Amino acid sequence: QGEAFSNYKKALADYSQGAAEKSAEAGKVYIALGDMQFGKKNWKQAGTYYETGVELLQEANEPRGYIELGRSMHKLAAAYRELNMDNEANELDELAEKSQLGGTKGQIRKMLSGI
């Protein structure tokens, strides 16, 4: 895992040099770093990475990014639960579900309007 962690950190540095540190791709790297820390039961560090990743995914606001955003919000909620932040976790899970449902409904409307 040490090599993977180093590669992810290098990817973030590369995004920063390419002025893409606020991109959805950078957000996905932060989520991956959070996954690694979560797997090690480093809940606080995982939460920090997830928070940054979620923020970047929200800011990027990419079409069809709602699934990734919702999934990432659920991961952050899980980290919050491990940190005994149950209220925050529950709120985040609700937001994640609304995001995913709203995005799905929007995509269905777009598809139907093309018929």
Q: How would you summarize this macromolecular structure in one to three sentences?
A:
With 115 residues, the chain is mainly α. It has helices at residues 2-17, 24-39, 43-60, 66-82, 86-113. The N and C termini lie far apart (48 Å).
SSE topology sketch:
Elements: H1 2-17, H2 24-39, H3 43-60, H4 66-82, H5 86-113
Helix pairs in contact: 1-2, 2-3, 2-4, 3-4, 4-5
Summarize the structure in words.
The mean pLDDT is 86. The protein is flat, with a radius of gyration of 15 Å. The N and C termini lie far apart (48 Å). It has 115 residues and is an all-alpha fold. The chain has helices at 2-17, 24-39, 43-60, 66-82, 86-113. The chain is 83% helix and 0% strand. It contains five helices and no strands. The longest helix has 28 residues, at 86-113. Helix 3 packs antiparallel against helix 4.
